[in-house]
């Protein structure tokens, strides 16, 4: 085997008798502690926070040493995604008055609908989710998933689904509550509300 690997017999026997030194043993133990802290942090901590956590546990380890051992074990912190702005309130469309005043209750169906737009992570990447909820039973009666923030693919699409799932039959005027985003203030969406005689509230 030594001949095939081109290793001398003396080197092989020296390797068999080798014992890790104090530094190697310390690094092995420290690596185990690093992995435990990393696991406890749900893979969010980087070398500075892990080093600080180890110091609180009485384990002396510098940030460069922790960083070097993490790199050796291919341990990387999960980078938090930057916040994606979904509410574009800087527009020139008229903004509806807020008369709901955080009273998110309803005594009957089609009394008050609320809607919002957010974003979610999927296998296809970040997608925008728009929902319409009836406050009476807190049921999602309309929704839309899109890769853009255009009204046609967000607020309008979700609202049209809500109309299908919960037709407006009562003569009592329905209140539609949303944020001040352009998707709800634009002409395309407000025209849809006016066609169904729905009172829009910000």
Helix and strand topology:
Layout: H1 2-5, H2 9-16, H3 22-40, H4 47-56, H5 63-72, E1 112-122, E2 125-134, E3 139-146, H6 155-165, E4 175-177, H7 182-185, H8 187-195, E5 199-201
Parallel strand pairs: 1-4, 4-5
Antiparallel strand pairs: 1-2, 2-3
Q: What would you note in describing this structure?
A:
This protein is α/β, with parallel strands linked by helices. The protein folds into two domains: 2-72, no CATH class; 112-201, Nucleotidyltransferase, domain 5 (2-Layer Sandwich). It has helices at 2-5, 9-16, 22-40, 47-56, 63-72, 155-165, 182-185, 187-195, and strands at residues 112-122, 125-134, 139-146, 175-177, 199-201. The chain has a five-stranded mixed sheet. Strand 1 (112-122) and strand 2 (125-134) form a beta hairpin. The model has no long low-confidence stretch (mean pLDDT 84).
The chain-level structural class is alpha/beta
Number of domains: 2
Order of helices and strands: HHHHHEEEHEHHE
What's the number of helices?
Answer: 8
Helix content: 25-40%
């Amino acid at each position: 085997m030594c001949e095939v690997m081109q290793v001398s017999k003396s080197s092989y026997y020296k390797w068999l008798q080798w014992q890790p030194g104090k530094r190697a043993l310390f690094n092995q133990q420290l690596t185990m502690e690093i992995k435990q802290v990393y696991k406890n942090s749900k893979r969010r901590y980087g070398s500075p926070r892990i080093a600080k956590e180890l110091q609180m546990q009485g384990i002396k380890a510098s940030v460069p040493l922790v960083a070097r051992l993490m790199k050796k074990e291919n341990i990387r912190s999960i980078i938090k995604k930057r916040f994606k702005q979904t509410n574009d309130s800087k527009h020139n469309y008229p903004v509806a008055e807020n008369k709901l005043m955080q009273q998110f209750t309803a005594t009957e169906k089609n009394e008050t609908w609320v809607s919002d737009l957010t974003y979610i992570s999927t296998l296809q990447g970040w997608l925008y989710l728009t929902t319409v909820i009836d406050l009476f039973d807190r049921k999602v009666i309309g929704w839309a998933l899109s890769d853009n923030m255009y009204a046609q693919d967000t607020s309008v699409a979700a609202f049209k689904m809500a109309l299908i799932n919960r037709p407006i039959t009562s003569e009592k005027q329905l209140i539609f509550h949303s944020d001040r985003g352009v998707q709800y203030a634009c002409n395309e969406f407000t025209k849809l509300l006016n066609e169904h005689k729905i009172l829009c509230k910000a």
